[in-house]
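Inverse folding, one chain.
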């Protein structure tokens, strides 16, 4: 299967990869690329996080995953362990709580013997016109996508600093340069993560801690279920490739950015969006009549 064609595979449901694909699809990486690594993935029970954790394990890493629902984490851990034999640590938690974030990092050290990589994937948002977003909804998105990401970054960096160990952080964000209507809350949060990451990439360089961001758009994951069909169509129509892609595409990028192959990369953002930033604006809740016919 060519690298250019595999994203068109019929591999699972409309919104998620079939579990078998996580361990059968060809990858660009050598099978032992992550051997000996300990990788933490937030939001690791579904979507991009689940796919990243599974691929890390395929490549030889032990993994720790956290999320809100223990059932999903347990299912994913059992799946990964059965397919790869690698150890999987789980914790049901909210990344919004800085004390819990710190406890999770300590748990990873206790159960895996260390930590080499943090993939900050947990997050979420809902499509809504900005004038209709209530304070509770705004604060919930900011608290998860910005504050939660920060607490995990800080907890990981403190652990590495205190143990005089190197580390790599990659945050999953969104392309923010053009903004995105109907998601003002997450655009604000993701832009904050990018700015904070660039700031601490400088501060933490003396500790040999790298901090980078992967900006994603057009991901076909379980999270797409919250968007109306009209909103999903605009996501496809506003990139020049005229399609979405699945989580495997983003997982491979996250692994590259986390790995020694990217040892000279820090403070940067890699964007994978099908070219959307060059061409169009999506309307997750559906395009208003005022903008009909436009990109």
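Residues assigned per position:
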């Amino acid at each position: 299967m060519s690298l250019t064609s595999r994203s068109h595979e019929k591999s699972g449901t409309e919104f998620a990869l079939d579990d078998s694909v996580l361990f059968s699809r060809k990858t660009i990486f050598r099978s032992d690329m992550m051997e000996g690594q300990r990788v933490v993935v937030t939001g690791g029970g579904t979507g991009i996080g689940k796919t990243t954790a599974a691929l890390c394990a395929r490549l030889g890493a032990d993994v720790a995953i956290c999320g809100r629902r223990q059932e999903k984490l347990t299912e994913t851990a059992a799946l990964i362990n059965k397919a790869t034999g690698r150890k999987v640590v789980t914790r049901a938690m909210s990344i919004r709580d800085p004390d819990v974030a710190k406890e999770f990092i300590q748990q990873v050290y206790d159960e895996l013997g260390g930590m080499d990589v943090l993939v900050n994937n947990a997050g979420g948002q809902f499509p809504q016109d900005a004038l209709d977003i209530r304070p509770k909804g705004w604060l919930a998105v900011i608290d998860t996508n910005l504050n939660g990401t920060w607490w995990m970054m800080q907890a990981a960096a403190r652990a590495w600093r205190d143990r005089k160990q190197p580390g790599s952080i990659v945050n999953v964000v969104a392309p923010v340069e053009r903004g995105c209507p109907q998601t003002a809350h997450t655009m604000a949060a993701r832009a904050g993560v990018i700015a904070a990451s660039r700031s601490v990439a400088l501060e933490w360089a003396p500790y040999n801690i790298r901090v980078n961001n992967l900006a994603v758009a057009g991901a076909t994951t379980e999270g797409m279920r919250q968007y109306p069909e009209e909103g999903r169509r605009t996501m496809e129509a506003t990139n020049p490739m005229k399609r979405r892609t699945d989580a495997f595409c983003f997982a491979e990028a996250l692994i590259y950015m986390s790995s020694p192959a990217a040892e000279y990369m820090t403070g940067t953002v890699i964007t994978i969006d099908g070219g959307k930033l060059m061409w169009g604006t999506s309307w997750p809740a559906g395009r208003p009549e005022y903008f009909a016919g436009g990109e």
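The domain at 31-225+243-272 is CATH 3.40.50.720 (Rossmann fold). The radius of gyration is 18 Å.
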